[in-house]
Structures are given as C-alpha cells and as structure tokens.
Amino acid sequence: DVKVTQSSRYLVKRTGEKVFLECVQDMDHENMFWYRQDPGLGLRLIYFSYDVKMKEKGDIPEGYSVSREKKERFSLILESASTNQTSMYLCASSFSLAPRSYEQYFGPGTRLTVT
Amino acid sequence: SQQGEEDPQALSIQEGENATMNCSYKTSINNLQWYRQNSGRGLVHLILIRSNEREKHSGRLRVTLDTSKKSSSLLITASRAADTASYFCATDQYGNKLVFGAGTILRVKS
C-alpha cells in the first residue's frame, strides 16, 4: 500500500513565524503536490514538484515556498505565517507519465491554525 | 481556478438508497477522477474514467462521463452509513496535475 505521511496532524503557530510542513511518500512517485483545503472552496493547488529539485507554482503560491531535495520528501514552507493561512494542508503524490495525470495518493492532512 | 463543479453541494439519504452526484467542467480533459474524503482526513481515490470512456464500474460505484456535455456523474448504489463523506471530482487538464471541485457532502442515515 502506498503511504503518504505528513509530519503533524495539528499545528498552532503565531503570526510571523516560519512554518515547515513535511511530507514523505514511500512509493517512489515522481510527482508530489501541496494543496490547501478551505470550506466551500475545495482543494486548491499551492505547488507541485515533478522531480527532485523541480517545482512549479500552482494556483495560489503567494506566501508559500517548497523544497524537494530527495525524491520521497516534499516540504511546504510558510515564510511568515499569517492568519489567512489557517487551513487544512494536504500533501499528495502520484506517478508521472506526462501529459496524463494518474491517481493521487493523499496524506492525512495537517490542520494549521495561525493566531 | 475551479474546473469541476459538483452538484448538489449536500445530499442526505437513507441507508439502502442510491446516491447520485454530478460534476461539470469547462475545458477538454484527459481524464476525470472521483475521490472520497472522510471527515478531517485525506482524500482517497475511488475511480478514474478516461475521456474516451463513457461508463465505468467499481463495486457499488458507477461513473459516467459525457464529454459533449462536459459532465460526469457518480452513482453509489445501496448506500451504507460508512459512505457518509465528502466526494470530489477532479479533472486532468493535460498538465500532469488535477483540478478539484468544491465537493458534495453525502450523509447516509441509518
């Protein structure tokens, strides 16, 4: 079974703090994704990575950065957390055979609260 | 940008009934996928239907795709309380990534 793990289920941070969210997958997937999920808005793509050290902006990259130094690990960084970044953050991974998309495997999510 | 739009936003049925959810999208797609999310959890992939397919089955799930109308439906037959969850459609816009809709909340009452 594919496993995608996220470093924390719940996180509370203060405004202005630098926040790191970690995601690890064990299926040797090329693609990894970070989404945020807010009520009524569904999932919105923040960043994705199709290979080590490669990244592309999604729909809402402002205020975020990412790092992928190893194939299995994809980190989301909030440079200076703000209250409007309070949300559920979901990491996912998938195989890559561009231009097709394949099923994505999701982690359990991190519920981040910024106060 | 929101590609998939699910309808209805919420659905409440009795155990044993069928549940139908619809998804509409705007541009041409490579495939369309349905996911389920239990409360406060990550999403789980249910089924993928390619643009050249019209119908697909998986257990109690039946998905249809009408590319001329840019719409899809997910039918869950003989629903169970454990089917209570949010259901999302996601479209592949030929870019190696998916675009998700806002989801349908399904509640199955026992």
Q: Give the helix/strand class of chain A.
A: mainly beta
Order of helices and strands of chain B: EEEEEEEEEEE
Estimate the global geometry of chain B from the Cα principal axes.
Answer: globular
Count helical runs of chain A. 0
Estimate the strand proportion of chain A: over 45%
Note the gap between the termini of chain A. 37 Å
Low-confidence stretches of chain A: none
Question: In what range is the share of β-strand residues of chain B?
Answer: over 45%
The average pLDDT score of chain B comes to: 92
Q: Roughly what percent helix of chain A?
A: under 10%
Largest interface: A-B, 31 and 26 residues
Oligomer: heterodimer
Question: Care to count the β-strands of chain A?
Answer: 11
The helix content of chain B, as a percent range, equals: under 10%
**Biggest sheet record of chain A:** 7 strands, mixed
Q: What distance separates the N and C termini of chain B?
A: 37 Å
Q: Work out the radius of gyration of chain B.
A: 13 Å
Count of DSSP H/I helices of chain B? 0
Low-pLDDT windows of residues of chain B: none
Number of strands of chain B: 11
Which class best fits the helix and strand makeup of chain B?
mainly beta
Please provide a written account of the structure:
- The complex is a heterodimer of chains A (115) and B (110).
- Chain A has 115 residues and is mostly beta strands.
- Helix content of chain A is 0%, strand content 56%.
- Chain A has strands at 4-6, 10-13, 19-25, 31-38, 42-51, 54-57, 64-70, 73-78, 87-94, 105-106, 110-114.
- In chain A, strands 2, 4, 5, 6, 9, 10 and 11 form a seven-stranded mixed sheet that branches. A four-stranded antiparallel sheet of chain A has the order 1-3-8-7, with no helix packed on it.
- Chain A is globular, with a radius of gyration of 13 Å.
- The model of chain A has no long low-confidence stretch (mean pLDDT 92).
- With 110 residues, chain B is an all-beta fold.
- Chain B has strands spanning 5-7, 10-14, 19-24, 31-37, 43-50, 55-58, 61-66, 71-76, 85-92, 98-100, 104-109.
- In chain B, strands 2, 4, 5, 9, 10 and 11 form a six-stranded mixed sheet that branches.
- Chain A binds chain B through residues 4, 31, 33, 35, 40-45, 48, 50, 58-59, 88, 90, 92, 96, 98-109, 111, and chain B through 1-2, 30-31, 33, 35, 40-45, 48, 88, 90, 92, 94-103.
